[in-house]
């Protein structure tokens, strides 16, 4: 991919910069981006570990119309995938590249919209006991989706919001209006709840991150034992729940994603693709 980037950057075939404030200028840019994106997809298919596993058939044309008709609208990107699929890593990489090129971006996780279950945890003695007694942690009903939807609507309209914060300390406490999120030109939202019915339609770009189940299990167990100090027994029990919940609640939305990305792909390669996309938008003089 680096060779492809270098070839593009070293090209002397610069394009006279059109007026992107005009519809004609935006149509020219979109046509150029469409051509280059199809080249990227063609190149990616030949790789041993491609980053693009699937692309929705109408994504390119639909996104193109959005760029032409609503160029000043906030761009909302939703990233979902089963637990330990690599969605957080993909989100961080996308955000890093956006910031690297001094583009304004806001990031939030749907994990902060879990319901406050502190009273239930006190009743059952621990989060694990609550889960083992049938509490469905990843179900849509376990999230404050009405608040998430309202916050995303406000952000899309250019308004800043104060989002809740779910404390990751096992207490199940959700602190309302705890953190300010500024409405930037690009808004990236990551988490399993991103594609739930109540919020999925607000996103301009829907990304599903997919990884091999064995790799996901290894990642999850390692994270549970090393970062959260769980016993192997409890980590395996939690994994069994996570695997079933992912199949039930998250995986069905794979078919609705605009892009299905490979959570096992090399991050450097993924970064080069993002840098290349940025480079081709600057191929005007």
How would you summarize this macromolecular structure in one to three sentences?
It is built from 10 helices and 8 strands.
List the main descriptive attributes of the protein structure presented here.
single chain; 285 residues; alpha/beta; six-stranded mixed sheet; 10 helices; 8 strands; globular; AAA family ATPase
Q: Care to describe what's here?
A:
The protein has about 280 residues and is α/β, with parallel strands linked by helices. It folds into 2 domains: about 1-50 and about 265-285, no CATH class; about 70-265, 3-Layer(aba) Sandwich (Rossmann fold). It is about 45% helix and about 15% strand. It has helices at about 1-10, 25-45, 60-70, 85-100, 120-125, 125-130, 145-155, 215-225, 230-250, 265-280; strands spanning about 50-55, 75-80, 105-110, 160-165, 175-180, 185-190, 205-210, 260. The strands form 2 sheets. A 6-stranded mixed β-sheet has the order 1-8-7-2-6-3. It has a two-stranded antiparallel ribbon with strand order 4-5. Strand 4 and strand 5 form a beta hairpin. Helix 2 (about 25-45) runs antiparallel to helix 3. The protein is globular, with a radius of gyration of 21 Å. It starts with a helix and ends with a helix. Mean pLDDT is about 90; it is low at about 10.
Can you lay out the helices and strands and say which pair or pack?
Layout (H helix, E strand, L loop, with lengths): L1 H8 L13 H23 L6 E4 L3 H11 L5 E6 L6 H14 L4 E5 L8 H7 L2 H6 L12 H12 L4 E6 L7 E8 L4 E5 L14 E6 L2 H14 L5 H19 L8 E4 L4 H15 L4
Parallel strand pairs: 2-6, 2-7, 3-6, 7-8
Antiparallel strand pairs: 1-8, 4-5
């Amino acid at each position: 991919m680096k060779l492809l980037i270098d070839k593009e950057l070293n090209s002397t075939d610069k394009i006279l910069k059109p007026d992107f404030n005009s519809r004609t200028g935006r149509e020219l840019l979109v046509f150029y981006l469409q051509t280059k994106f199809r080249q990227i997809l063609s190149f990616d298919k030949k790789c041993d570990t491609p980053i693009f596993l699937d692309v929705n058939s109408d994504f390119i044309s639909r996104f193109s119309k959005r760029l032409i008709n609503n160029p000043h609208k906030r761009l909302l990107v939703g990233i979902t995938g089963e637990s330990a699929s690599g969605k957080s890593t993909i989100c961080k990489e996308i955000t890093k590249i956006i910031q690297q090129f001094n583009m304004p971006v806001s990031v939030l996780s749907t994990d902060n919209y879990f319901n406050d279950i502190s009273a239930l945890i006190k009743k059952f003695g621990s989060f694990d006991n609550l889960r083992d007694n049938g509490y469905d942690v990843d179900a849509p009903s376990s999230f404050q989706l009405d608040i998430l939807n309202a916050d995303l609507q406000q952000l899309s309209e250019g308004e800043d919001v104060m989002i809740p914060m779910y404390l990751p300390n096992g207490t199940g406490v959700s602190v309302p209006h705890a953190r300010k999120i500024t409405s930037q030109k690009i808004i990236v939202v990551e988490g399993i709840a991103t594609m739930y019915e109540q919020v999925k339609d607000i996103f301009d770009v829907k990304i599903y991150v997919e990884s091999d189940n064995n790799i996901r299990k290894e990642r999850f167990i390692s994270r549970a034992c090393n970062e959260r100090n769980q016993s192997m027994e409890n980590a395996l029990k939690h994994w069994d729940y996570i695997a079933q919940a992912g199949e039930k609640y998250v995986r069905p939305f794979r078919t609705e994603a605009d892009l299905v990305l490979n959570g096992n792909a090399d991050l450097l390669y993924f970064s080069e693709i993002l840098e290349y996309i940025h480079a081709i938008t600057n191929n005007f003089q």
